[in-house]
Amino acid sequence: MKITHKNIQGIIIKIIGALVIAWSLSGCSAEEAREFFDLTPALRTPPADVSAVPVFSSDGSAPTGSLTEEAVIPEVPENAPYDESAFFKTPDISSLADYPKMWTKKYTGEYEKTDKTVYLTFDDGPSENTGVILKILKDNGVKASFFVVPDEGEVCAARLRAIAAEGHTIGIHSYTHNYLTVYADEKAFTDDFAKAYDIVVKAVNQKPWLYRFPGGSVNQYNRGCREEIKEAMDKRGFVYYDWNVDSNDWRGLSVEELCGSVAADASRFNNPIILMHDTDTRENTAKALDRIIKELKRQGFKFAPLTPRTEPIQYGVNW
Ligand SMILES: [Zn+2]
């Protein structure tokens, strides 16, 4: 190639571009890095008519057929060593200015001591793969947890109901899953959360008590407001869960690679909380799931859904 002034300029521009991307991703978590690339083409855009989104009215009254006055108390596990209902505390809801009915009773008792127990968690669903995932979980007698990104459609509602009917835990992930939107400030996060929360409550008639931050609780987008968000959500009784094992399914790994990666990483923990994804494009997650479960069972793991008695993994707090 003949070196000309023009193509030297082109090479310099490419190098600068690569450096900018590398710099942007250097402080990112894995999921964040995925989002960096996904944001433009796969941005979950809100519906055109945002006013059609069911939200709580400004006077706090719930839309008809939605919330009941009493928060549903998370189910006390059958093997609870004592009457734990006494440890579910109602938050001070008088201090909630927005969405005064969006709260849950918070578990304040001891965390369950579990031996070699896996908590599978599926983010970003429900999706076209939810049915397959549910079938595999059922066939293996495994309960898991889903941190959902719901929309208002009937298909989504039916999938949410299927998840709940199978006894899995449903937590809130996001409505837009757009970092720039949800992490604008605490109010923006709460507004986004409320939309997802309302859809879930209407679909399954349960009030979720847990959530997962888009990108994990510590990411470069929520640097300026994460403590305010945590405080605001804690005030409402909600608990967030990060993860200690990333399946890396967002990287587009083969089924073989996924199985190997999860099996190796999970074996390092007594209570692995595994991040996986339930999205239309992650069919390898569903394809690998049966083998992953069987391999983890072979390693001696039991499986459980997240319950209020499950000690959370929280980045920057205990992780
Ligand atoms: Zn996500």
What's the gist of this structure?
The strands form 3 sheets. Strands 3, 4, 5, 8, 9 and 10 form a 6-stranded parallel beta sheet that branches. This protein has a two-stranded antiparallel ribbon with strand order 1-2. 37% of the residues lie in helices and 10% in strands. It has 9 helices and 10 strands.
Mean pLDDT, to the nearest integer, reads 81
Low-confidence stretches: 24-73
**Helical segment tally?**
9
C-alpha Rg, in Å?
Answer: 21 Å
How much strand?
5-15%
Number of individual domains: 2
Bound molecules: zinc ion
Structural class category: alpha/beta
Level-2 CATH architecture of the largest domain: Alpha-Beta Barrel
General form: globular
Q: Total number of β-strand segments?
A: 10
What is the terminal separation in angstroms?
52 Å
Main sheet overview: 6 strands, parallel
Layout of helices and strands, plus pairs?
Elements: H1 5-26, H2 30-42, E1 88-89, E2 106-107, E3 117-123, H3 130-139, E4 145-148, H4 154-165, E5 169-172, H5 179-182, H6 186-204, E6 210-211, H7 226-235, E7 239-240, E8 245-246, H8 255-266, E9 273-277, H9 283-298, E10 302-303
Parallel strand pairs: 3-4, 3-9, 3-10, 4-5, 6-7, 8-9
Antiparallel strand pairs: 1-2
Helix pairs in contact: 3-9, 4-6, 6-7, 8-9
The structure holds zinc ion.
